[in-house]
Amino acid sequence: MDIAALTNVSSDMIQKAIDGDTTTTSTEDFQKVLDSAINMVNETNEYQHKAEEEEIRFALGQAENTHDLQIAQYKASTTIQYITAIKNKAIEAYKEIMNMQI
Questions:
Q1: What is the pLDDT of residues 60-80, one digit of tens each?
Q2: Which among 47, 41, 38, 35 has a CA at the least distance from the CA of 78?
Q3: CA–CA separation, 79 vs 81, rounded Å?
């Protein structure tokens, strides 16, 4: 399959695979995963804070409609569910690795 036909797809991993360069170290890969997880947690916290701010604005009568409040709460809820699912999968993978026979 020729991936050159795809447009607007740019990734260091794809470019390295095309060039045949697969010399990444596991430390670099782990650092990328760790950074991604930390960014995901920070993003979840931001959505939580925005939802709390909207709740306060609504309670004080500063918000004119409930639409903004519902959107903020939905985003916060969705990100929490997503990060919880990822955490559960990571724990499940860890337990499976620990139960492997060597």
A1: 988 888 888 899 999 999 999
A2: 47
A3: 5
Write down the pTM of the prediction: 0.63
**What gap in Å lies between CA 71 and CA 51, rounded to an integer?**
8
Cα–Cα dist 76/54, whole Å: 11
39 is written with which tokens?
A: 């960014």
| Domain residue spans of the chain | 24-98
Burial 45-62 (b: 16+ CB within 10 A, else e): eebbebbeebeeebeeee
Nearest 10 degrees: CA dihedral of 60, 66, 69, 75?
180
